[in-house]
Structures are given as C-alpha cells and as structure tokens.
C-alpha cells in the first residue's frame, strides 16, 4: 500500500510503521512456571550476586595514600666487652624521617677506625680487600664492640663476611612502639580520610595500643605484637633481620558505608623465612659514620646493621555508584534474560507431551509462491 | 516432513532452516514515534554519555612514574643566642637524594654534646631517660641554640618533650623553590612523557616559576606558593611541621589528545591541620650528627627537626581504544535496545485506544487438540 | 478468555501464560548458511579473542610489592691530586638501606672544610653566597680533590655551579652488581611469590649473573649490563648522572599458569638523555659530612654527587576467573548474537530473489476494526 503513495509517505511508513512479533499464547501452568522460574533465578543472580555481593554497579578507584611513622622506645645494653649504652630512636631508626618504610636496628657488627686510604693487612688490593679488612680486624681485635663473634663464613665465592652472634643486641626492641599516621584520598570520589579516626582523642592515643579485639582502631603498634601477628618470633627475626609488611586495606563502599570506611590492618612477613632454596635470607645493610681525627684524617666506623624493615603498604579500592558499570551489568543480565524464552521454547518443543501441537501452531513452513494463494488464507484461519 | 527424508537431510534442515519471527506491522505514527523516540534516546545515551563523556570504549591503565626533586634556595639566621649562620640545601633538605618525598626543615630543637653512655642527671635509667636528658639539658642550658624555649610540655603520660617557640627558625624557607622532574610511562600503550614539556627551553626554565594562570607548565614551584594553593599559611605550618601533597594528575586520552597529555598539578595538605580530635599534629622527627671528641669519645648532637614534608604523588589513568570494552559497552547498549520493543508493545497494548484490536491480531491463543484437527490441518497443509 | 474467569485465575493467566513468538521457517540453504556463518564468526570472536587472547573472563588485580636491593663491588681510585682511596658500598651507595630506589655514586665535586658561619670571600651575603663560596673555593684551591675542573659555568641566571670533568671518578662502578629481592602479593587471589624462584639454590646464586638468554631468572644484575640493555653507555651516563628504571613485570594468568608466574625484567632510562629542549639533564644532589674540629667548631665537607639512581618499578596485573566479568562479556556477546537474526532478516528481505514472498509471509499489516471480522481472513491479501 505504501508504495502506491508518494515518496515522502513511503519514508514515513518505513520509519514509523511499528513491526511487532506475532505471538502464540500457551496457557500452560507448567510451561509458564519453567519460564518464570528461570527468569526469577536470573533476577536473583543479578540482584543478589552482581549487585549485593560483587557491587558491580560501582565505579572503582585505587587508593592514593601518604604515610608517616614515628617509632618510640629505647633500649639499654650492657654487654661484657662494650660500655653500657643507651639506644634511642635516633640511633636505631634508619632513615630518621619516618616515611612508609622504616628500619629498626636489632643487631650489628661494628668495625671502628677504618681508613679508606690503605689496607695494610693485604699486600695487593684485590676485589675482596675492604670486606676482608673488616673481617680480619673484627676477627683479630673485636675491640669491645662485643657483637661480632669473629667467625668468618664464606658468603660468596669471593667475599667473606663476619657473622653476628645468635642473640640479638637490641632484644628490647620488641617493646618499641610505632605510631602510624596514614591519610588516604580517592580523588575521583573526592573522599579523604586518615587512620586516626575522629572518635580517637588525645587521651586515648596516649594510652592505647593496637589489639585486634580490644583496640582495633588504635594506630599505635607494639613491634612484638606486629611480628607475632605475622606468625613470626621477634627474637628469631631480630638476629638475621627481615622485612615485615604492615598492610593497610582501605577497601570501602562509599555508597552506603562511607562513614564506616575504616582501615583494616594485617601483618605479613615479606621475605621468606625458610625458602625452599634457603638463600638470600634476612635483611641487613652496611653504613658508616665518618669522623675526622685530630690530625685531619678521615676515619669511619663501619656498621653492618641487621634489623627489621617495616614496610607500610596501603592498598584498597573504593566503589561508588557509576552509571556505566551499572548499564553494562544490567545489559549483560538482560542479554541472559533474552535467553530465557529460547530455553522455554526448547522446553516446550522437546519435553512437553503436546510438543507437536505447540510446534505446529508456533512455526509455519514457508509456502512456495504457487501454493501461497490458497495457503496464506488457511494460515490465518488456523490461528483464530 | 524432513523426518520422512534421510538422516543427513534432516540434519541439514535442522542446521540450516532459517526460522524468523512473523510480525504484525502497525501503521500508526503515534506508536512508531514512541518506538523511534525511545530508540533515539538510547542511542543518544550510548553515543553521548558512554562514548563521549565516559569514554567507556577505552582500555585503561594506571600510570608508572619516577620523580626526582631538587630544592634550591638558602637562608641566613641571626638569632640572639646563636652564631650567624647560613643554611643551604644540604643543611635543610633531608634526605638529600631528592626522590618523590623530600623534607624541608623549618624549625628545630638542638641538643648538642650528648653522650650515649650515661645520663648523669637521672640516677636511675628509666624509660624516659634519654628524652628527659635532652629536655633537662635544654632547659638548664640553652647553650646558644636559641630555638628551644626551655619549656617542657607533657607530650604523653610517660615522655616529656621540649616545645619550640611559636616562630619558625627558617622563615625564609617559604622562598625556596623546588624543581620537580617527573617521567611517566603507560607500558601497555607504550607511551612515555615527562613533565618538562618539549616546548620548555633552558632559558624559560631559568626564569619561570609555576603559576596556574601565567606559567601552568613550569616545573619549578615556590614553596610558599604550593602551601598557599593548598589553603595553608606557610609560617603557621613551619612551626609545627606538616605533610603537603603535590599531586600530579596524568589522566590522559591517548586516542585523540595524546599530544595534549599534560600533567595537572594540585596541592593538598595531607595531615589534618585541625582534626576534630586535635591529636598527633604536625610533623617532626629526630636525627643526630655524630662526632668524636679529641679523646675518641663519641658524642652526638641531637636535632628534633620540624618542617614540611612534601610528598609528590603521581596518579592518573590513560585510556586508549580497546576492542573488548567497546564490545562490552555496545553489547550492553544493544541489550537495552532490545528492551525498546517490549516497551512499545506494552504501550500499544495498554495505552492505545485500539489496544484490543492490536492484541487480537498480535497474539493468538493456543488451540486445543480437539479443535486443532481442523485448524492445525489447514496450518500444516500450509507448511507443506 | 481469562477475563471471563475469576480475578485469581486471571492473575495466574497473566503471570504464567507463556507467550512465544510465531515463526516462519524458511528452508533455504543459502539463508541458513549466511545465518549460521555469522553466528560462527561471532562465536569465534567470543571464544578466540575475548576469552583466549584478552582473557576478559578474568577478575584483575594490581600487584603489591616490596623490594630490597643490595649493591656489591668496590672501586679503587688513584688520581693525581687525591690520595689513593678505596670505595666500598658504604661510600658510594646512598641511602644505605637498599630499598626500591638506590643511588650509585659515580662522580663528585668535593669541597672540604666549609664552615657555615661566614663567607669571607663575599662581603655581602647574597642569595648565591653559599654556592659561590663553594665554587670560588673550588676554583682557587682545588685542594687535592682532583675531580673539580675549577671551571665555573652559568647554571641559572643567579646561581653558579662548578662542573666536574668529562670522565667519571668511579668508572669501575660499571662492574658493581646488585641483588634485587622482590616479594609480591595479589591479596584478592591470596597469591604470594618472590623473584628468587624456588629452583634457585645458593650455589647458583653465588655465581649467576642476569642474562636474558643464559640466566633469565638470576636476580643479580651487573650495572653495566642493565645500562647497556637500556640502550645507554655506562661511562657516558656516569659523568652527568641519570635515572635508570629496572621494570619488573609480574603480569600473570593465575588460572592456568600460576606456576609459570615469573618476573619479566626490562630496563629503561627514565630521564631524557637528549631531550629536545636540552634542559635539566642528568642527576645529581648535594650532601655533606659534618665534622667537629678540635676547637669544637663544626665544619662540613660538601659533596655534589653525580651518579645513577636505579628505580626498581614493580608493576603488573594478575587475572583469575571471575563470575562477574564472565557474565558481562558473555552477555555482551549474546547481545551481538541477537543481532544476527536482524542481519539475516535484512539479507532475505533485500538480497534474495524471493524477497517479496518472504516479506508477504513474514509480515502482516494490521487490519482495521471494521474490516477485522472478515479480514483476519484476508490479512495476507492486504499486504499484497
């Protein structure tokens, strides 16, 4: 009909004629139940799992964080071949600034009075000279630093090193505490928070100490407690050193629980304690204090420091309602909903007794041109 | 009928017979308009919001970055009880290497001449000995370091500390500048860039200073300017210290604007200035310089350093066309498009005057077997 | 029909009547082939590209990592105007702790004996005094540190600096090695691993050296090798300094290849060697060693250190089967599958010879009320 009218009307027909599929209604409770039940299961999945459990309707963003740490506590050592000595944070905490990785010295090998200009014990400067110097000096003349056993172990094929004793110098370090201040930002969601929560007052902060049960929000941690929560023994770890992770998880749902967005602390040893291959154990580094003698010569005290490096690792993603992920997930769910009729069709055409009846009334075979005349007429009769 | 022929042909029919829904065409402008308009709205959403605004067709990757910083400037102090003294970057910048977190000392409490071996003022070494030593010495004998007021405040229940005066020592620090060099990489997209853009020449770099209006690309920042953009007062912050974030946002669209991928700088104080609970304010740490006396005894000068720690935080995600997100988002939009006919059907069967007419011609009730005989007879005839 | 019965039954009908589209079966191999082939292409895309190549069925998480580094090796310098001197890790590695960014000093300008209290050469303390002091002293009296040429270059309009010679002091640094220990975690997948793989034993670790072909798993790197893999020349880089990235990629498929999750090392210079604008080249910083003279005066040795900063950058995402991304991607693919019938319909109604036949039997025009009675009989006529 549209072809008989003008071009414009033809276009109107083309654009605005609404084409809707013809349907066959099957008034069978059984079929209907299978259909609705499958729809219900899918809806349950979408609402229950995708929305409630996975929160797939949310935009996500990773945390941006800044950490300052402050170690407190001090120790007193009174070992036979060393003068009684106090150790405060300045002596054992390296570097001193207190950023997200701090080192607490627990053991050391000290070699004082080194000069860098010559190495008298070794006639030829070889690649192991400095290390051997240290070690030979340490061996021959412990000179009151008391921690070096004087035993030289083969460290690698070319370098020797001096092993410390099996007890740590600063055993008291386990009672040091560290205050961790952590501010986080989710820039996309304009959300800022710090781990000193608003209900913590100075009185509480003066006395509290982190404990998962009794003080889960206190940002002050006793080193021994951290290490033992990580499943390690502080005194064991103190001898050879190690790396311990303080993991702060800021994963938050900013739609409903923005006010309940709290940091979750976990502790984990980050270097292997007993790796299968038993290599590259512990954690230590060397540093020196440089002095100038009265004669103007530069001498240094070499310190091989063993201790625990604490790495504060802040991670987490925040989620907040976003239109794109919502659309994407709803769309995917809708796609599956559009599968349900296929499933129901398959069910009625395969499993039902009346499947031939359904099949006959649902599907029509194409009628060839010659027969079409009479047939298309009977088709419409059949559907009444 | 395909069943009457061979198995192979039956399979061919099963696999290649094309089954297409029968449709009813409703030549109503009103229905057609509702249908097309809804389709148009959805398309607008897909093209406009998902593609243009959210760029959901893009793969995303987080930035990998490296930062070096270099502070310049120096100060001159001439305070009553201290010798006139110059301060250059080596004295106030800790640590000196200039990585993504640098500290500028603005105030200090200095306690020279400490020995770690004994604490004469206190007969019994208690847990607060070292701190009290410092404080008592500072109190009794300010010894020309001039910054310590000598007042002892209760810092916590067990530890006392010495408060500095309310004006900062290095007030001139506000005029220091810092050059920030930042190179970034998006490894998945093989995109590299640095914040010293290619149009910046050495002449410009010698004279420029970051200013959001006049010099938005200059990587040299005056500390006072950074602090004031963060909404703080430098002199206020200098007394007790603080942490200031220099946030560099490298979010870029690498499809169209790869050449316009510029860093965006923002500044934010990262520790709370006036937290509700008023605890753990400011930023300070202690460090020591170790000396050896002519007699070979080790002494140290303890410095409690107050200052501003600047954390350069680089973040951002780049997006570039990716086939998977495109497919996912188009697919989701298509799912919604497939909802439009349902909506239109609901509209014509509920809101239109002729709804009964439409309903009768669109849907057919299943005809039971008994009646089916005659009816389905004509139907099946038709399919022959 | 349902309206004649009670309300409850009406609802039952409404809820459980199953409405299935009536279909027309076209037994044409050609149409069927087009239909099935398009379906097959889409399936191929879904299985092949989305699942196998892009692994879009996986949940993703970014790596959390901790790094410790240990530099080994030492150098011997015997330059005319300086005493023969040994350099070990303590002297050239700054900071000493060995975290993910370490600096190896290769060149330096040393200015000993500075006092901060006065600047005799300059009568008026100007903003460039300290720097000028250094430079003038260096110029007039190289005083045996041997590295300073004594030439003063214009560094910026207000500050002068003293350039080092064009050969590096610690040329031997290229043979230093660094052991990188890197532990990673994917917290969501509870996956932990370190870069010292389980098949590496201590014997191997004592002798191995990273080489992409022969020792791809050895975590010990010769500095020269790192720099040359990054496409740079160590001696060139050593003079003015630079920043070199050691990129460790931990991207892993934890579904199938969790045991084959190995780190992949790449090396890249992170500062521009020859930027277009030729500004802000190299890497250096100043630090000082503080001494006290016999008279108790504090003096410092100022060192301008040139060298290579090595930044260990750990990145990567792990993927593991996740129900939500699977559903989303399958859903999107299904949406496209639902497009295939539209495509096939368009094909049969446009490109086929019998398109009018198909069209007549597929679509029926709405018949108006008045005619409807007789007409549902003549529906198909109307479309002819």
TrEMBL record, chains A, B, C:
InterPro entries recorded: P2X2_purnocptor, P2X_extracellular_dom_sf, P2X_purnocptor, P2X_receptor, P2X_RECEPTOR_CS
Binding-site residues, ATP: 70-72, 177, 284-286, 304
Subcellular location: Cell membrane; Membrane
Record Gene3D superfamilies: atp-gated p2x4 ion channel, atp-gated p2x4 ion channel domain
Membrane topology: Multi-pass membrane protein
Top-level taxon in the UniProt lineage: Eukaryota
Signal peptide segment: none
Glycosites: 175
Regions crossing the membrane: 33-52, 334-352
Keywords annotated in UniProt: ATP-binding, Cell membrane, Disulfide bond, Glycoprotein, Ion channel, Ion transport, Ligand-gated ion channel, Membrane, Nucleotide-binding, Receptor, Transmembrane, Transmembrane helix, Transport
GO MF entry, a single one: ATP binding
GO terms for biological process, alphabetical: calcium ion transmembrane transport; response to ATP
GO cellular component: plasma membrane; postsynapse
Keyword Electron transport carried by entry: no
Quaternary structure, from the entry: Homotrimer and heterotrimer; functional P2XRs are organized as homomeric and heteromeric trimers. Homotrimer. Forms heterotrimer with P2RX1. Forms heterotrimer with P2RX6. Forms heterotrimer with P2RX3.
Family to which this protein belongs: Belongs to the P2X receptor family.
Name the UniProt record assigns to this protein: P2X purinoceptor
